[in-house]
Each structure stands twice: as C-alpha cells, then as structure tokens.
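Regression report. Comparing outputs from two consecutive submissions.

Submission 1:
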Amino acid sequence: MSKRKKSISNDEVMVRELRADPAYALEYLKAALEDEQEPAVLMIALRHVAEAYGGVGKLAADAGIRREVLYRALSPHGNPTLKTFLAVIKSLGLKIGIEGPAKAA
C-alpha cells in the first residue's frame, strides 16, 4: 500500500510564500488593492498576510479587535469599518497613500 502525500490548500501555499518573502507580500497586497471590481480580494489578501505573520489572532490582539470580528472582516464577504481596516493596516506595519490623477504633459 502506498502512502499518499497530504495535500495542502492553495491558501496554505500562499501563506508559506508570503512568509518566505516580505517583498512578495507587499506586492501581493498592492495588487489586491488595485482590484476595484472585487473588494473581497483585498480582504482575503490581508487575511493571508496576517496568517503569514503571526496569525489572525495575534493581529486581532495587536489591533485591539475581537478575533471573531477580525475573522469576519477578513472573510470573502467581509465589510470592515474604516476603523477596523485602518487598525489592521497599522498592526501589519503598513501605510496607505493617496495619489492624485496623473497630469497630462
């Protein structure tokens, strides 16, 4: 009888890759932020990064948010308040910038 390798989910693979390469994690979040058609992409990306860097429970404690609230906020159907979103960004050590429209030369 042959032993089967345990399969791992795409989420687990992504978390491993993000943990291994912080620069990739940053680009991953930037790309998710640019997806204007599907806001859930950003919530999922934030959850992946949170899991890669200490877990959602640790992030919730750092951000001063109940763990259950953060799990719900970072779900595909999550719709966090601006306060929650900014607390997550700050706790991950990230900053958000605003840029104006490009001016035609």
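Submission 2:
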Amino acid sequence: MKTATFLLLLGILTWSACQPSPPEAQAQQTAAIDFEAEKAAILEVIAAESAAFWDKDYDAWASHWVHAPYVRTMGWWQDGGVTVVEGWDERSTRTRDHMEASPEPNPTASNVRRENINLRVFEDVAWLTFDQYGEDTGDALMDMPGRSRETRIMEKVDGQWKIAYVGWLLEGPQPNTE
C-alpha cells in the first residue's frame, strides 16, 4: 500500500511539474536572470553528469553534484521498483558501487534525447522536468531504455550549477503507434 501511495504521489508531482508555466510567470521569474544562458549551463551539467555516469567516471560524475546531507534521488523502474537515496554519502557510495560492479564504460548510453523541457530558474536554484529517451545498450545494471520522466533540482555552488535532487520514472520502451 505504501508503494502504491508513493507512486501515485510521485505521478501527480511529475504530472503537475510537467505542465507549462504561463508566459507571464516565466517573464517574472527571469526578469533579472539571463534565462537562455542559465538554461544552457543547466542542460550542459545534466548532459555531462549523465555522460560521466554511463562512462563510469566517478570523479567527473561527482563533480556535478551538491555534496550535502539533503541531496536526494527518488525513482522507479520495472526491474528495481522504488528507489530512494537520502544524502550525498549514500548517493556517492551507491553510485561508486554500481560503477565498480559494472566498470565497462558505456558511452553510447549518453546518446539520449531530452524533450518536453520545463525549466524554472531563480537566482541560486532551478528546477526542471523533461522526458528522456534512451536506447537499450545491454548494460543491465545501469541502462535506462525508453522514456523516462525526469526531474532535477539544481543549486548554484560557487557560481556553478550542481544537482541537488534527481527524480525519475522509467516508463520504458513506448509502443510503436505508427
């Protein structure tokens, strides 16, 4: 029952976060912020963090994260169910363990499409949701094929965007409707 409630809440949060912001709200939030420059910087961090993850480059991967106890990741996928990781120490340890268990770099896994980007940028915090489409590359431990509904909360640390929260819901391969 707790899992079903969690998934329902996660689904509602993801759905509501994916709704587009009204143009007037977007204009207000970005009046003093160079939105396009911040967007480019944030999307570069997301792409670089993903590439480092799939390349199994722990140090590069870790450089894109806030290293604090409030860091969180929450996600769901069919093979593993619900995953909740609390704090940098646990996130760091789990990722290092996954990389050691599956050390062969998988650079093709970072060949993903990101669409339906919904981004809000403030002075030192940003959040975004997007749909990510990945291919099945055969890496059973770290692969994310199909559509994944993604959420990121970013913070500026010493002038650089870093990841503080990752949420994902891997729906998997989508049926061919053509």
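Expected: both submissions complete independently.
Actual: both completed, but the second showed a warning that disappeared on reload.
Relevant detail on submission 2: The mean pLDDT is 83.
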